[in-house]
């Protein structure tokens, strides 16, 4: 879902997902694509609370790579709750749990979360951001930009607290949203905390040139793969298409995502195989043909890796399609 149109003046819901595609399509404020990673089935819980023009989203997700962008006319303020030894990486920058990320309409997002992660996000219209960030540094209002903000500890804690309270209301007290006083009070609290966070006290972390170059190369690789979804892509083909060495491609993926091209491409091919299985009729031979079509020559290894990522065998996916 791209924008916020069609939602009521106040609404709350909680949904649970086992499919990365379904989770991605449920997110508000932009368009996103999720690729699960690591040896655990993908799982996500999304809590959404809308009050007027603002939407709070809080999610618990398993390890994944995410790519996408914020819709024009929107801004998204994000917070991460995570273990310090497994930080999330967004646009090539590790984001601490005491920091916030501001993505303004048109900003591209490339993220890697190696472990299960909880995050919260507040999506709001750009005119509201410009009003609330009146005292913020001018670069925070630039369209198409993503900034990592270092906030004072007490300000970060207050902002995280109001987002957590909103997500709790979405899950536990949706009936309370029908009260105008409740909705108005929460809307004012959200506005005040955003305005207080986006002031001259918010330090903007700079991004090294090497990381920016790596990010451009990874995004070029993603664009190349996105234009060829019908077939598997391998490292050698990417290097030839982008005109770079295997070492440079490897270093770029590690700088931007924290993982090797091989590991990412394997997870991506497994996801494409799952999409193919879910879209076909029931036939035992289809598992073999889908595996081969997506570059998995050893069927036993394919079944093992597929089950580790999605929690079921390829044949089970096919049977339930």
* Helix/strand class: alpha+beta
Termini, distance in Å? 23 Å
Helix count from the secondary structure assignment:
11
DSSP, total strands: 13
The main β sheet shows up as: 8 strands, antiparallel
Radius of gyration: 21 Å
Strand percentage: 15-25%
Structure described in brief:
The protein is α+β, with helices and mostly antiparallel strands. The chain is built from 11 helices and 13 strands.
Note down, in words, how this protein is organized.
The chain has 321 residues and is of the alpha+beta class. Helices cover 43% and strands 25% of the residues. The protein is built from eleven helices and 13 strands. Strands 1-3-4-11-6-9-12-13 form an eight-stranded antiparallel beta sheet, with helices on both faces. It is globular, with a radius of gyration of 21 Å. Residues 1-9 have low confidence and may be disordered.
């Amino acid at each position: 879902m791209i924008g916020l149109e069609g939602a009521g003046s106040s609404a709350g819901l909680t949904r649970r997902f086992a499919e990365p595609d379904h989770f991605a399509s449920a997110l508000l404020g932009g368009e996103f694509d999720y690729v699960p990673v690591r040896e655990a089935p993908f799982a996500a819980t999304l809590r959404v609370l809308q009050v007027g023009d603002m939407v709070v989203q809080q999610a618990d997700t398993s390890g994944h790579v995410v790519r996408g962008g914020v819709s024009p006319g929107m801004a998204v303020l994000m917070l991460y709750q995570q273990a310090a030894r497994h930080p999330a990486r967004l646009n090539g920058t590790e984001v601490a749990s005491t920091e916030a990320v501001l993505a303004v309409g048109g900003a591209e997002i490339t993220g890697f979360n190696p472990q299960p992660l909880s995050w919260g996000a507040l999506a709001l219209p750009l005119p509201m951001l410009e009003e609330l960030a009146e005292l913020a540094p001018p670069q925070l209002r630039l369209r198409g930009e993503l900034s990592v903000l270092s906030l004072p500890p007490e300000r970060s804690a207050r902002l995280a607290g109001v987002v957590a309270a909103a997500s709790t209301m979405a899950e536990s007290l949706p009936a309370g949203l029908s009260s105008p006083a409740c909705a108005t009070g929460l809307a004012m609290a959200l506005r005040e905390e955003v305005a207080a966070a986006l002031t001259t006290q918010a330090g903007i972390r700079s991004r090294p040139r090497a990381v920016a170059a790596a990010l451009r190369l990874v995004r070029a690789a993603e664009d190349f793969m996105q234009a060829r979804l019908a077939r598997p892509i391998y490292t050698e083909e990417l290097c030839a298409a982008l005109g770079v060495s295997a070492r440079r491609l490897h270093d770029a993926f590690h700088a931007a995502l924290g993982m090797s091209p091989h590991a990412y491409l394997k997870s991506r091919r497994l996801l494409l195989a799952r999409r193919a299985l879910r879209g076909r009729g029931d036939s035992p031979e289809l598992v073999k043909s889908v595996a081969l079509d997506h570059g998995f020559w050893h069927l036993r290894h394919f079944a093992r890796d597929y089950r580790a990522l999605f929690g079921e065998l390829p044949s089970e996916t096919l049977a339930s399609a």
